[in-house]
What does this fold into?
Amino acid sequence: MSTPADAVERTIDAFLDNEDSGDIVNPIHSTGFAQRHGFRGALVGGVTVWGWATPAILDAVGDEWLDRGWAEFTFRQPTYPGDRIVVRVRPAEAGTFAVTMTNQSGVDCVAATVGTGDAPWLGELTSPAHREAAPPPDPKPTLTLEHAPIGRDLVPMAQPMFLDDAREYIRVSQRSDDPRFIGEHSRIHPGWLAGRFEDLLRHNFAIPASMHTRSRVQHLAPAYAGQTIVSAARMVEAYERKGHRFGVFDCIVLGEAGEPLARIRHTTIFRIAEAPAAG
It folds into this structure.
């Protein structure tokens, strides 16, 4: 397939460093659990995969995307360790860019639109009122469709993102030496920012496994390592489709001084359907 002259293209071989480790937090990233749910192997985390698009996006759009840019992305197919992923970013309509992440079989695993400034959907996101970090519930409740806290805030969570944390994220999840994210004034990688809700989900609920399916992310200000980050969210919807149980959450990511760094609408499967019985 030829690449248009004004498109940016990069290739990455997918990897999963903690595959099948005994202390894995989300077992969908382990081989046995994933296969029992109908997948051919351990899935690479959605925000990890999305993070791999960052170099191509920055080449096409520029660093301003990190400061005040946005993305809307959907995971159409799983990405497995060993997949060869081609990331393409090309200009689209109204000053936006189309992003695809295509595997070696020609399947688009991820489809996205990115742009700078404020996203056209930013006004649709709700904002949680409860923004002060607090300990998790004890015991943590199980999230169910019947008792989903729609319209209510979750318990916010604080996480350190110091320079060593930023470098470890880049080493483990991105395998990158981009000086933007490893220097003395390291930016926080957009893949890490996009993943704040999955950690917040487990701060609030006893979740056996989850699968990130879609996100809208609006970067609001430059985000730098060297501080403690607070994530807060409100649940806006819950539904079932093809046996999977989905939750939709509006999240805000705050810097140490309480300044908003990003707003996110995160859609996740919080209960994965069992695979059909053989025969």
Notes: The radius of gyration is 18 Å. The longest strand covers residues 227-241.
